[in-house]
Amino acid sequence: MSLKTAIVRQFGKPTSLVGKLAGHIMARRSSNRLRNQRTVELMNLQPDSRVLEIGCGPGLALALCAETVSEGRIIGLDHSPVMIEQARKRLEASGSESSVDLVFGGVDRLKEWPGAFDRVYSLNLIQFIADKTDFFQRVFATLDQGGICLTTYQPRLDNEDPNGASAMADKVTRIMKEAGFKQVVRIGIVAGPSPALCVIGQKEVRR
């Protein structure tokens, strides 16, 4: 196994020294930073937004969220202690550690927050989720009425299908609709031979 392949596999759950290296790559790679920035921009955050990032990694997007959300709530969830620690250090360096709660755990933790958020998002997490139907049902339950879910995906290995982002977006769109999301759309956020796409769906307000 090449070092590059070993590092990419670590993106699912970074551990040990290789996991730390994967986290540093996530934080420094320009395409990753752009993917985080544009996903956060799509959320149209407000000072009182209630935000959850699933698989927060080294905390790039959380720090961006904290620039706007001052009266609401921001939670970063990750099942890797390595990523939780890197996110904590990044937030401390930016002076926003008091604005973000970092929570260790996997998607099973979502049951603790029924209707708690108006924005739930993930970045390059969905390819590691085995049961995507269960995942989006859990996300749907954490959202308040009118809340939105954003799922961003960009293929990372050179030998991945160049149409992989589109295929993933199609799959996510279908599953989100089955989970109850409405107004599901996909938006291109990074162009090029390995594009990044974001699928956005809303939990409708009950009449």
UniProtKB/TrEMBL annotation:
<feature type="domain" description="Methyltransferase">
    <location>
        <begin position="51"/>
        <end position="147"/>
    </location>
</feature>
<dbReference type="InterPro" id="IPR029063">
    <property type="entry name" value="SAM-dependent_MTases_sf"/>
</dbReference>
<dbReference type="GO" id="GO:0016740">
    <property type="term" value="F:transferase activity"/>
</dbReference>
<dbReference type="Pfam" id="PF13649">
    <property type="entry name" value="Methyltransf_25"/>
</dbReference>
<dbReference type="InterPro" id="IPR041698">
    <property type="entry name" value="Methyltransf_25"/>
</dbReference>
<protein>
    <recommendedName>
        <fullName>Methyltransferase domain-containing protein</fullName>
    </recommendedName>
</protein>
<keyword id="KW-0808">Transferase</keyword>
